[in-house]
Amino acid sequence: MKISKIWLVPFSPTGSSRKVITAIAAAMTGIPSEECDLTYAAGVGRRRFGPDELVIIGVPVYAGRVAPLAVERLQTLQGDRTPAVIVATYGNRDFEDALVELRDIARQASFVPLAAGAFIGEHSFSGAETPIAAGRPDGPDLAIAEAFGARIGARLAALETLDAACCPDLPGNVPYREGAPPLPLTPALVEAACTKCGICLTVCPNEAITLQEKIAIDVERCIFCCACIKSCPEEALVIDAAPVRQVRQWLHEHCTARREPQLYL
Ligand SMILES: Cc1cc2nc3c(=O)[nH]c(=O)nc-3n(C[C@H](O)[C@H](O)[C@H](O)COP(=O)(O)O)c2cc1C
Q1: 245 alpha carbon, distance to own chain's centre
Q2: 172 C-beta closer than 6 A to ligand 1
């Protein structure tokens, strides 16, 4: 079947999911592509996709599930028997029920997931002293993503109609295991280091940060994605909350063995 356009659909506060889906699309040369970025509120709005378009969705895993803000924003999209590739990016611990959940979200909106991947991205909580999957997705990961994109392109080209396509079996539980409740915590500000440049305001996916006298983070809106921490040039935002520091230390000690992307086609 002929694809007239590829839509990249990331929700990617710290950029790993976007890198992976961009690499997948890069292999499908000759087809125009555009991004429908769900990371920031400004990019979210009701969108419809046609049966001759391909949507490549990339989201992070939070507590073994699709990040809740991504779930909310994906619900603004509507397919029309639109083929889809679904990608969950996780921080080298596990992706648990995230791929089956993403498959179900896609199907409910009339997308037809025909390929899925679980890729590894640097863990949001990773830091210089406690690295967790630092630097991933790296060159080998992105080469795997590109080769996967080439296989998906070949599969689509060989399909007469989408009716012949089916979603491969995916690991995960249905019903899904409980995700974690929202943390009543935010990154902490090191006031002496902050230059009030405002970069953190622009990278926050949920408009949780304001700047008046000083940077303030709204605990109700913060999803602890760590985009602000990773983007701050002065290291003025840090993980200070004890529960997150403990999780970070555990991940740093226990999730050291390199996991590899898992592909389903
Ligand atoms: C609140 C929260 C929960 C997370 N839970 C998991 C998890 O259950 N398993 C895992 O391996 N990584 C987990 N991660 C790490 C992210 O999935 C990982 O860093 C991912 O690459 C982020 O994607 P992005 O760069 O596209 O935002 C979590 C990160 C955050 C912020």
Answers
A1: 22
A2: no
Residue 74 belongs to what domain range?
5-175
Residue 256 lies in a domain: no
Question: Tens digit of pLDDT for each residue in 173-226?
Answer: 999 999 888 889 999 999 999 999 999 999 999 999 999 999 999 999 999 999
**What gap in Å lies between CA 76 and CA 58, rounded to an integer?**
15
Residue nearest (by alpha carbon) to ligand 1 atom 31:
225
> Is the omega angle on the peptide bond into residue 175 within 30 degrees of 0, that is, cis?
yes
Nearest CA to ligand 1 atom 19: 123
pTM metric for this prediction = 0.97
Judge whether 227 lies within some domain. yes
DSSP string, 88-115: EEE-SS--TTHHHHHHHHHHHTTEEEEE
Domain-terminating residue out of 114, 141, 175: 175
Q: Is the dihedral of CA 135, 60, 224, 233 positive or negative?
A: positive
Residue 180 inside a domain? The answer is no
How far, in Å, from the CA of 214 to the mean position of ligand 1?
28
Q: Phi and psi of 34, rounded to 5°?
A: -145, 160
CA 66–ligand 1 middle distance (angstroms): 9
The 10s digit of each residue's pLDDT in 85-139 is 999 999 999 999 999 999 999 999 999 999 999 999 999 999 999 999 999 999 9
